């Protein structure tokens, strides 16, 4: 028997009922589309971050090369 004073009581219904006029299937399809959109946005963000990291590393390498040239000339 579940605890009467629990903050998170056990629920028998695994999902919330759909809003009026909308089926569970429609809700799932919307959830899937939303998740796919979130994945797309995350992938785009990751690509931008990787490109920025690559650009920064190239800039660091260029500066290190210039600094080595200056140090070696002295």
Automatic annotation (TrEMBL):
Residues 41-55 have a biased composition (Basic and acidic residues). It comes from the Eukaryota. Residues 1-74 are annotated as: Disordered. Residues 57-74 have a biased composition (Low complexity). This is Uncharacterized protein. It comes from Rhizoctonia solani. The lineage of its organism: Eukaryota, Fungi, Dikarya, Basidiomycota, Agaricomycotina.
């Amino acid at each position: 028997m579940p605890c009467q004073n629990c903050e998170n009581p056990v629920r028998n219904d695994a999902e919330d009922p759909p809003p009026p006029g909308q089926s569970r299937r429609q809700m799932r399809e919307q959830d899937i589309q939303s998740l796919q959109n979130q994945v797309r946005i995350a992938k785009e963000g990751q690509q931008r971050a990787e490109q920025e990291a690559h650009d920064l590393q190239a800039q660091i390498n260029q500066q290190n090369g210039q600094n080595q040239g200056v140090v070696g000339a002295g």
